[in-house]
Amino acid sequence: MTNRNGQSRPPAGEAAPSVVLLVFRMDGREHALPVEDVVEVVRMVAATPLPEAPVWVGGVINFRGRVIPLIDARARLGAPRREPDLSTRIIVVQTSEWAAGLVVDEVVEVLPVRAEALDPPGKATAGAAAVSGVVREDDRLILVLDRDRLLEGSVDLRLPFDLEQTREAER
């Protein structure tokens, strides 16, 4: 993917971005995750419900031969839930030990961001622990989410995930 201008890297003479973000939309608002946290973006699939799971856990899915929890990002952030449609996507995120799928309304773009456009969390976002920063991009404000904080509370749902093993299974 590229940014809205169709650029995959900054034009000659411009500094390289300090971070590259995957921008997605939920409830009409733009949010982002650093691309290094993202394994893949896939279309919505049917999930198997988990009894007694938190309300924001949509169940589990089979991702390339591995079972991973599916987190409804809208519900997790306190927005009203909505039925998935053709634009609904699952952003598969990973840590070194586990992975999870985040259900979002739609994926917008991959956006390289310069350091001066990224504001660290401050007084404006103090009550929102899941926000790790805010990007000012032209007339847009994009909330950068903290992957670990966003998935916090699903500790009992963390299923072992070995990305290398998954890639081997695909071959």
Care to give the gist of this entry?
The chain is mostly beta strands and 171 residues long. It contains 3 helices and 11 strands. The strands form 2 sheets. The protein has a 6-stranded mixed beta sheet. It has a 5-stranded mixed beta sheet with strand order 3-6-7-5-4.
Question: How would you characterize the overall build of this protein?
Answer:
The chain is mainly beta and 171 residues long. The two termini are 24 Å apart. Helix content is 10%, strand content 40%. Residues 5-9 have low confidence and may be disordered. It has helices spanning 73-76, 147-151, 163-170, and strands spanning 19-26, 29-34, 38-43, 57-63, 66-72, 89-94, 99-104, 106-113, 118-119, 131-137, 140-145. The strands form two sheets. The protein has a six-stranded mixed beta sheet with strand order 8-1-2-11-10-9.
